[in-house]
Design a protein that fits this description.
- With 144 residues, this protein is of the alpha+beta class.
- The chain has one domain (8-126): Cathepsin D, subunit A, domain 1 (Beta Barrel), CATH 2.40.70.
- Helices cover 19% and strands 47% of the residues.
- It contains 4 helices and 10 strands, in the order H-E-E-E-E-H-E-E-E-E-H-E-E-H.
- The strands form 2 sheets. Strands 1, 2, 3, 4, 5, 6, 7 and 8 form an 8-stranded mixed β-sheet that branches. A two-stranded antiparallel sheet has the order 9-10.
- The two termini are 17 Å apart.
């Protein structure tokens, strides 16, 4: 098993850049880019959503940075509805930690969501008590 840990300087940048909404929802600045052309990117505050497995970005944004859809999948909403959505690969940068992951093409004008899989790949967890992202290593318990 490989343990992925965010570097201390990435954690420090993340803590400085995190924002909380009045409802306590965690938002973090993210750069999403074309995985084959890093010069084509978009930056925004993403809502951290551990209830979403895959991150989602508005379709017009993904089209504008040239992310290609690889398939169409059925996604399930929190209210039980389902919908067909395109999915592709995009690169994500959170506090200097970069990973490529699947991304769902969300409807235009919807809030971008940072899902569980990319957070896990980057070495971040959501601390529900503090309502913020933390490095996985801060919350892990060592066993000898």
């Amino acid at each position: 098993m490989q343990l992925v840990r965010a570097k201390p300087e990435a954690i420090a940048r993340l803590v400085l850049s995190m924002k909380e909404s009045p409802m306590g929802k965690v938002r973090v600045p993210v750069r999403v880019s074309n995985p084959f052309d890093a010069g084509r990117y978009w930056e925004a505050d993403f809502l951290v959503d551990t209830g979403s497995t895959v991150s989602s970005v508005p379709v017009d944004v993904l089209n504008s940075i040239g992310v290609d859809a690889s398939e169409i999948v059925e996604v399930f909403m929190a209210d039980g509805r389902s919908a067909l959505r395109r999915v592709g690969l995009a690169s994500f940068d959170v506090a200097g930690v970069k990973r490529t992951s699947e991304v769902i093409y969300a409807p235009e004008d919807t809030e971008p969501l940072l899902g569980f899989l990319i957070l896990e790949a980057m070495g971040f967890l959501v601390d529900p008590l503090q309502e913020r992202l933390r490095p996985r290593s801060d919350l892990a318990v060592g066993v000898d």
